[in-house]
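Reading a protein record of the kind used here takes only a little practice. These numbers are not coordinates but entries in a learned vocabulary of local backbone shapes. Here is one such record, which you should read through line by line.
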Amino acid sequence: RATSSEPHTVQVVAMAFLLTSIIGLVLVRPTTSAGQHRVNHPSVQAVTPQHMSHVEKMPGLSARPLAAPPQCPCSDVKLCEPLGGSPLQEKEIFGFNPGAVGADGGYPGVNLSVVTTVAWPNDPNFICAAHASNVKVVINPPSVNLTALRTTEARAAYAASAVAAVKAAFADGVTFDYESPIVRDSIDSSTYVAVVKETTAALRAVNAGYQVTVCAAWSPDSIDGRAYDYSGLARGSDALYIMDYDTRSQIFDVCIASANAPLAGTEHGVQRYLELGIAPSQLILGVPWYGYRYPCEKGTSPTAALCPIKEVPFRGVNCSDAAGSEVGYATLVGLIAESTSGRHWDASTSSPWFNRLEKSATTGKMETVQYWFDDPSSLALKYAVATDRGLRGTGPYTYSDAGPGETGRQMWAALAAFRTP
């Protein structure tokens, strides 16, 4: 029951959260595996650097020091006001990180005429350009420690710190990305749902247009031990962002290089979320605008279709995509001209691949390396899944991986087609 001392207790705990979780943070950045964000996001707990979908690989815009009122970075202070209207647009183009500031002060890594939401931008001034284009910006919330958030008081303090972070960044909401294992129907499972639900309520009490999304594995079926209550998380937020990438975080069959996001997995994962009773209007399909570079085992032919890879375990499984490394699409596609195999299309996964001979960092000798990636052709098939299933939206990790020029134009054109009637 509430007591007269509760408000003071919550304020004290909230200040502790602010001091430990927010002050001094301006840039943070997420990484990857199994429908995870490429590891670099501060809200991802206990995940190895190779296996974090967003959490540890991307610099996310966070709160500014709260010792003094935050100063609006925009020449027009109205651009520091949160965008109004519905938390989500009718069709969302939701993705991560617009990339670095261009020489002209703009943001060449993101097409603001196409996107509707940008998560975890790496520049605090990006809010000005985004809001001028009616694009929402969402930040990563304070780090989630489920053991410490089991009480109502602790969650109230956490929610207060999340609200303060959003206000300090002049942002439009938050995107949760917790990726540690959770046992089904455990106290951690219910606590995570409560954290999301109560943070959403706290944000909505301030602004009805604030947006709350939750990153979810490519399938709800306990991927990497994450047996989350996805139905509860959906009820407590605006939408789930299905991280349909790094799906080979745990390889149970032959230990070989293969597609980052096979189309059959995309279809299966989306269908499983729908079977949980989650409305398609609460699902956003996340796609990879990056690929994987896999060094093949010694003796692999430069033209071989099969590339055996080193066994690198992840969460109890001997083989994983941690044997490879991530490469942005723009960088990767520029290597095809020097390939030893040419670009190939794998019909079983609806994904392209190619081989190259490259010098080994360990032996100094030339070795066969295989690249798997997604391009406008394979991505169009995934966007079609989002359209056919009536999903709320789609979008990449990360926007900036598309690159400039004709290569980038083709990637953006394929994405923009999702919003075309």
